[in-house]
Amino acid sequence: NFLIENYSKEEINNFKATIMKRLYKFKTKDLYKNSYRFSVNSSCDKCNLCVKACPTRNIEYIGGDIKFRDNCIMCCRCISCCPKNAILYKNKKYPQYKENINLIIS
Description:
- The protein starts with 13 loop residues before the first helix and ends with a helix.
- The strands form two sheets. Strands 1-4 form a two-stranded antiparallel sheet.
- The protein is built from four helices and four strands; from the N terminus they run αβαββαβα.
- The protein is α+β, with helices and mostly antiparallel strands.
- The longest helix is centred in the first third of the chain and has 14 residues, at 14-27.
């Protein structure tokens, strides 16, 4: 049904939505710890491509620095789109996936 765009939206009240969001965040809290393992090194030229490429808006440019928040889904688009390969995970550089890079930063 989803592929043919035949779907329905279930209406819930705000209280139930808040409870469900908190429960989901609690159950998946280990997934969000990955954001704290990302960092940038001194070769970062602050081009903001990683900020634009992040689908969850996990990366922000604040006060002249790149900051990682706590909603990373580990897609690694930021690593692949960085022209300087300046984004580190656990303080290590990882190889970039450059095929179809235009799809990532569009």
